[in-house]
């Protein structure tokens, strides 16, 4: 009988499910809200394609990293609507200008994070912004293969394991000149089930009697700066920044206690990347020996050229963005996940289940896992200062000063 990898190694990339011509594999939510492949033995013919196309069972061959270079990128036009320096927009518009299609993650009206394809610059807004939830790949790999077979250019953006899943699905073929991939420097991925439960708890906390209606939109971070403060918009309210226990989901994310089990032994948390390019926030630029003269307040993207492609497309990209080569040591200095995966804390055993559990309130969750949950004098002062900063548009000035002081 065919066996796939266990939950401690399965990334949920769905390459196995999309590779099965007999539709014997479906992706099913487990008790923690993560999608896991389940084999229907009545349909399985034991052909072994699912195992062959699993990037954990048969890792994809890595690249020639002697060609690898590190760059800072700033796309001023999009920095106000992106959560970093705008690198995604630059590559996406470059592909679309050549008649290509871009695949990335969007968040829909059900608050599911799903991969979709867009074909115009006007649709890119659907894919912008960070989403700290594992996205649903669906049939994306099959769609991409069809585009490649018809000689259409494709850009795919995802976590390292998703990019690895795509290449595994394509039998390791990189389709040079047609397929371009951006793998994200990833801390780890919480589940959709945990996020959906969190939103339900957030509604009960902020709008227990429907005072401001139901949640209509959610942002994991600000789109015009480095800020990682999430915010929510209800049917009868403006955008509201989340405080104390309201922010328990992101507090848990940064502590690394709600990730998929495979994230703690991720094969992509190093500088030997899988994508054509790697993108991330360029944390620490200009603070480790080499000055950076551009304004960093609204974010700077780190772009790692893994294949030596940048010199050949540089002239096309620089019409849109400022691009500067930077030292590798600087680029990885503050990027923990370019060095190693997150450590698995013992509380991971209960943290996801408690977030999924509808009877565990956000206050109870924050108390149990050591997150801020009550108003103190220090918290009042900090909040007052932040409110003044945001009200008068001083955040970028504040962040620039703090950044240069190395805080």
How is this structure best described in words?
Helices cover about 30% and strands about 15% of the residues. It contains 13 helices and 13 strands. It has helices at about 15-20, 50, 85-95, 140-150, 160-170, 190-205, 250-255, 310-315, 330-335, 350-355, 360-370, 375-390, 395-405, and strands spanning about 25-30, 35-40, 70-75, 100-105, 115-120, 155-160, 180-185, 215-220, 230-235, 240, 275-280, 300-305, 320-325. It has an eight-stranded mixed beta sheet, with helices on both faces. It is globular, with a radius of gyration of 21 Å. The termini are far apart.
Structural class: alpha+beta
Distance between the termini: 55 Å
Helix coverage percent of residues?
25-40%
What is the overall silhouette? globular
The profile of the biggest β sheet is: 8 strands, mixed
Strand content: 15-25%
H and E string: HEEHEHEEHEHEHEEEHEEHEHHHHH
Rg, nearest Å: 21 Å
Mean pLDDT over the residues: 91
What's the number of extended β-strand segments? Answer: 13
Q: Helical element count? A: 13
Spans of at least 5 consecutive residues whose pLDDT stays below 50 are none
How is the largest sheet built, in terms of strand order?
Answer: 5-4-6-7-11-12-3-13
């Amino acid at each position: 009988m065919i066996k796939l990898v266990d939950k401690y190694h399965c990334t949920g990339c769905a390459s196995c499910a999309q590779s099965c011509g007999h539709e014997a594999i479906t992706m099913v939510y487990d008790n923690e809200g993560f999608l896991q492949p389940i084999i229907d033995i009545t349909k399985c013919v034991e052909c072994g394609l699912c195992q062959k196309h699993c990037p954990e069972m048969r890792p994809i061959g890595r690249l020639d990293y002697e060609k690898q270079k590190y760059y800072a990128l700033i796309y001023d036009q999009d920095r106000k609507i992106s959560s970093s320096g705008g690198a995604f927009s630059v590559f996406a518009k470059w592909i679309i200008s050549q008649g290509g299609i871009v695949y990335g993650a969007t968040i829909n009206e059900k608050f599911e994070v799903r991969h979709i394809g867009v074909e115009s610059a006007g649709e890119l807004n659907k894919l912008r912004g960070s989403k700290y939830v594992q996205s649903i790949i669906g049939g994306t790999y099959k769609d991409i293969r069809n585009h490649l077979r018809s000689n259409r250019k494709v850009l795919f953006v995802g976590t390292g394991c998703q990019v690895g899943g795509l290449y595994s699905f394509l039998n390791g073929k990189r389709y040079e000149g047609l397929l371009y991939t951006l793998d994200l420097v990833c801390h780890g991925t919480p589940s959709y089930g945990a996020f959906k439960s969190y939103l339900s708890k957030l509604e009960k906390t902020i709008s227990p009697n429907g005072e401001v209606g139901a949640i209509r939109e959610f942002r994991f971070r600000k789109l015009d700066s480095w800020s990682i403060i999430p915010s929510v918009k209800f049917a009868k309210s403006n955008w509201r920044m989340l405080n104390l226990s309201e922010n328990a989901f992101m507090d848990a994310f940064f502590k690394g206690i709600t990730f998929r089990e495979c994230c703690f032994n991720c094969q992509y948390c190093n500088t030997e990347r899988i994508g054509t390019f790697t993108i991330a926030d360029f944390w620490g630029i200009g603070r480790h020996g080499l000055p950076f003269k551009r304004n960093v307040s609204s974010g700077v993207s780190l772009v790692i050229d893994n294949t030596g492609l940048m010199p050949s497309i540089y002239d096309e990209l620089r019409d849109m963005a400022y691009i500067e080569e930077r030292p590798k040591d600087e680029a990885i200095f503050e990027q923990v996940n370019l060095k190693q995966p997150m450590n698995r804390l013992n509380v991971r055993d209960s943290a996801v289940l408690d977030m999924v559990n509808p009877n565990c309130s956000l206050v109870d969750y924050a108390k149990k896992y050591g997150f801020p949950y009550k108003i103190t004098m220090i918290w009042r002062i900090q909040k007052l200062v932040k409110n003044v900063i945001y009200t008068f548009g001083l955040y970028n000035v504040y962040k620039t000063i703090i950044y240069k002081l190395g805080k």
